Amino acid sequence: MTTPMTYMSGRLQVMQGDITALEVDAIVNAANHSLMGGGGVDGAIHRAAGPELKKACEALRRDQWPDGLPDGEVALTPGFNLPARHVIHTVGPVYAKTIDKSDLLASCYQKSLTLAGEQGMNTIAFPAISTGVYGYPFDQACEIVLGVMAERLPHSDLIATLCFFGEKDLEAFRNVASRLGYQR
Ligand code: ADP
Q1: Residue ranges of domains in the chain
Q2: 88: β partners
Q3: Does residue 134's CB lie within 6 angstroms of at least one atom of ligand 1?
Q4: Which InterPro entries does the entry link to (predicted)?
Q5: CATH topology of domain 28-180
Q6: Which value does ipTM take for this structure?
Q7: DSSP letters for the chain
Q8: Ligand 1: does its nearest atom lie under 6 Å from the Cβ of 104?
């Protein structure tokens, strides 16, 4: 786990590490439509949170999202055994070369920030949504995330953390940020 670097006057923190270890008001889960857990960060979050998380997700499916959580939407559960108080589940788009899904990926970040703000949260941490199994090109995803954060964080009380799992991802993010003129 690295010490966070900051952008946007300290409102955006960027680090390498395991998101399940972060003590924040909410971590965001790159979930799938079923909300029943899966591989990657979703699996790691379910393992660390314990079986209560799956039960809470089953209740969300029953009461709010009987057909599953659509792309770009968000749903809230407690964090159970996680150090994070809550989990915001969102479904990133599966990358497709011929269809522009950037708005859907942006929506995951926008709606997570909105929900966190409505809940009076101060701190939220994101994994690199859609850049694993869902195949979104990493640099393109970073540009989308930076755009959302630059638009939203100055007008909110939130401190957002981008938690990259690998050193290479952190380095790639730094390169994109510097190419786009974001100062640390
Ligand atoms: P998606 O299906 O949205 O692509 P994945 O879980 O496959 O989701 O990957 C999303 C990102 O989460 C990838 O960059 C992957 O390296 C990262 N990741 C996997 N496990 C963790 C973890 N424990 N903490 C933070 N990031 C993680």
Answers
A1: 28-180
A2: 28, 76
A3: yes
A4: Macro_dom (IPR002589), Macro_dom-like (IPR043472)
A5: Leucine Aminopeptidase, subunit E; domain 1 (3.40.220)
A6: 0.98
A7: -PPPEEETTTTEEEEES-GGG--SSEEEEE--TT-S--SHHHHHHHHHH-HHHHHHHHHHHHHT-TT-PPTT-EEEEE-TTSSSSEEEEE-PPPP-TTS--HHHHHHHHHHHHHHHHHTT--EEEE--TTSSTT---HHHHHHHHHHHHHHHGGGSS-EEEEEESSHHHHHHHHHHHHHTT---
A8: no
Ligand 1, residue 135: give the atom nearest the CA.
4
CB distance 131 to ligand 1 below 6 Å: yes
Closest by alpha carbon to 163, among 145, 175, 178? 145
In the block, residue with structure tokens 């990133």: 92
Could you tell me the mean pLDDT of each successive run of 10 residues in the chain, 184 residues long?
90 98 98 96 98 98 98 98 98 97 98 98 98 98 98 95 98 98 94
- Residue 157 annotated to the active site: no
Q: Does the pTM of the predicted model rise above 0.90?
A: yes
